[in-house]
Amino acid sequence: MFQKLKKVLVIYVGGTIGMQKNDDGVYSPVANTFLHKVKYHSEMHDADLAKQYFPHLKENELVLPVDSKTMILTIYEIVEYVPLLDSSNMGCKEWIRIAKDIEVMN
């Protein structure tokens, strides 16, 4: 089914895709929204393939459909910041944290 396996780390720090409208009608970051949206999008997670070949994946590990040209299968883990960041409220401190986390997690 696939010839090569790759692993990717996705660090979700916040952003529009993980936002929902709050009671005031304003979009704000909501925990696990990004993971939920990606997990139930067939182009971003092949649940059948995951179940068949990787039944012990963690909740935040997803499987991309096999690339038909390269026959590469990619498993990616989504690590979500707590609390999620809003880019309109970020400064140097937050960017330094992101850089340090990439260094540590990679």
Report what the structure shows.
This protein is α+β, with helices and mostly antiparallel strands and about 110 residues long. The chain has one domain: Rossmann fold, CATH 3.40.50. Helices cover about 25% and strands about 25% of the residues. The chain contains three helices and five strands, in the order βββααββα. It has helices at about 35-40, 45-55, 90-105; strands at about 5-10, 20, 25-30, 60-65, 70-80. A three-stranded mixed sheet has the order 1-5-4. A two-stranded antiparallel ribbon has the order 2-3. β4 (about 60-65) and β5 form a beta hairpin. It is globular, with a radius of gyration of 16 Å. About 10% of the residues are buried. The mean pLDDT is about 95.
Apparent shape:
globular
User: Which fold name is given in CATH as the topology?
Assistant: Rossmann fold
Helix content: 25-40%
Radius of gyration: 16 Å
Strand content: 25-35%
* SS elements, strand count: 5
What is the total domain count?
Answer: 1
Major sheet description:
3 strands, mixed
**CATH C-level category:** Alpha Beta
Low-confidence stretches: none
H/E series: EEEHHEEH
Give me the side-by-side strand order of the main sheet.
1-5-4
Q: Would you identify the CATH architecture?
A: 3-Layer(aba) Sandwich
Q: What average pLDDT do the residues reach?
A: 94
GO molecular function: asparaginase activity
Domain L-asparaginase N-terminal: 7-103
Protein name: L-asparaginase N-terminal domain-containing protein
Pfam family, one: Asparaginase
